[in-house]
Each structure stands twice: as C-alpha cells, then as structure tokens.
Design goal:
Number of helices: 9
Strand content: 5-15%
Shape: globular
Structural class: alpha/beta
Number of strands: 8
CATH topology: Rossmann fold
C-alpha cells in the first residue's frame, strides 16, 4: 500500500516497540489489549539478527540498527500514519539508534515521539551475577564465545505468579515472556556498545520522550537512567517511575499503568505538525518534582 500524499490528520495512534535483547514480541503481550482500549495500535516488529527467532551471535550492534531501520522503512511505506517509536530494555536503545537515521522532513518523517520502557543505559542492577564485573576480561581475551548470561530469579518480575510462569517456560526450553533462557555474552557485549552509542545521541533528540522505569529495576539502576536522560534537551522529557515492578514493567504489577501512561503520552502529541511538542513534566533539571507529579 502506497502512503497517502496528504498530511495525516489527528494524533498518532500507532505505537512501534522493539522488544528486549534476543527476545520476542511476547514481552508486550499484556499491553496489546489495554492499549487497544485507548485507541492505540501496537506494532512489535521482529528484527532479523536481533530477535530470538533469528539471533545471530556474530552480528554487531550496527547490524541490528540496519535491520531495525529496514523495519521502519517498511512500516512507513505501508502507511503515512505517524507513530511513536520506542522499546523495552535494549529495544529502547535500538529504537533511538534507528530513529537517528530517519528523514527529518517530508511525508516519510512519520516519527512523533519516543517511548522508552526500562531503557538499558547500563548493566548495573542489583540482581546481576557477581562474575559479571569480570566480563571485561572475557572481552579483552576473546573468550566471549564460551560464556552466556542465563536468565535467573527474579526474571525481571516482582509478581510471584508471573515468576512461576516464566520458570515453567524456561524449563520447557521456550523463549519465555521475558526472553530466552540464556544470551551469548558476545551478544550482551554488543548491547553495551549500542547503549554507549545511544548515550551520545541524547543531546540531539528533537521529539518528545517518555521514560518509564522501575525504582527497583534489578538490571539497570534508576540512578543510571536519570544520569543518562539528563542530557535530553530541556522541554522534551517526562519520567514516570514504576513503584511495584522490577525490570519487566510491561508484564509486572504496573503493566496497566504503563499502558495508561503510554496512551496519555500519545494523546498529548499533535501529529499535524513536525515541530517538537514540549512535555508537561520536563525533568532535565528537576528530577524529584517530575517523579512526584508522574506518580499521581
């Protein structure tokens, strides 16, 4: 289907989310229906070489960005409908890197904002294995092919019932709701390189950014996220802190609140103009005020 030649009227109703590292769209399964009730259509592309079904341990992070960019090319070729682009965990990093390559003018410039869910700016959470601090040795000696990061308790979930479900899926050898049972360390290294690249892009963002992150995220500390996003230009940023979840906020206790906040963010964007729209809760300098306001 060829995109229309007339500007799209109304606010964006299409939300494009990239899943986490070496995972699948299952991560967003609990968001689909709540978002649909708000009039938001969720699109969760599979990214060749990055997604679980096609994971290539030899791929570089640049290959992931190339593949994600092609996904967006196809999406924009199908429809001129504007969209919000984001992702979960490393998927949030992938979204920002791919967005940096999008056209800035013209009908194909359909991007209207960013939705970053548990963005992985650093691996420094409280549940990482003790040996993870030694990974630079494996990187330097070329031993990454012999090691993997195994999924372990609490599986990014505070909800005990959800943990039991994930445990069953992993024991059955499935790609679970939170991803595969293990990820090659070489792939993890590329995700760290991608995160480092994305941190350099933050000062140049031009669209509104919503960040949702758990206060007790066990993979990436909230403090690390706050330091990173402080580089986003003033007036574009809003932060919402999940108080009853761990890393997998799309499937944990706050999942309905996550969907509500995504919907509210999209409803606040005017798709009739290419100009950036300031957010109500700018936290470039006032972190604590924004957290208090967004929790209400």
């Amino acid at each position: 289907m060829k995109p229309s030649d007339t500007p799209w009227q109304g606010r964006p109703s299409r939300l494009v989310l990239f899943h986490g590292l070496a995972s699948s769209s299952k991560e967003f399964g609990f968001l689909t229906h709540p978002l649909r009730r708000h009039g938001v259509r969720l699109v969760a592309p599979e990214v060749p070489g990055y997604s679980a079904a096609s994971l290539d341990p030899r791929a570089r992070w640049q290959d992931w960005v190339d593949a994600a960019s092609r996904c967006l090319d196809e999406l924009e070729a199908e429809s001129a409908e504007p969209y919000v682009l984001g992702g979960l965990c490393t998927g949030a990093m992938l979204a920002l890197a791919a967005a940096a390559r999008r056209p800035r003018v013209g009908l194909r410039a359909g991007l209207r904002g960013h939705a970053l869910l548990s963005p992985l700016f650093a691996y420094d959470g409280w549940a990482l294995p003790w040996w993870y601090a030694l990974r630079p040795i494996a990187y330097a000696t070329g031993l990454t092919r012999f090691f993997s990061m195994r999924e372990r308790e609490p599986y990014g979930l505070r909800n005990e019932r959800m943990r039991a479900l994930i445990r069953q899926q992993i024991e059955a050898g499935e790609t679970s709701l939170v991803g595969p049972g293990s990820v090659p360390l070489a792939v993890v290294r590329e995700s760290e390189r991608l995160s480092a690249h994305v941190r350099t892009l933050l000062p140049d963002l031009e669209h509104p950014v919503q960040v949702q992150h758990a206060r007790e995220d066990e993979i990436c500390r909230l403090a690390s996220v706050r330091r990173a996003i402080a580089r986003v230009p003033t007036g574009l940023l809003s932060l919402h802190v999940a108080e009853d979840s761990y890393h997998m906020i799309t499937a944990d206790n706050d999942r309905h609140l996550v969907a509500d906040r995504l919907s509210a963010f999209m409803q606040g964007l005017d798709a009739c103009t290419l100009d950036s729209v300031p957010c109500a809760h700018d936290i470039s300098s006032e972190f604590d005020v924004a957290e208090t306001a967004s929790a209400s």
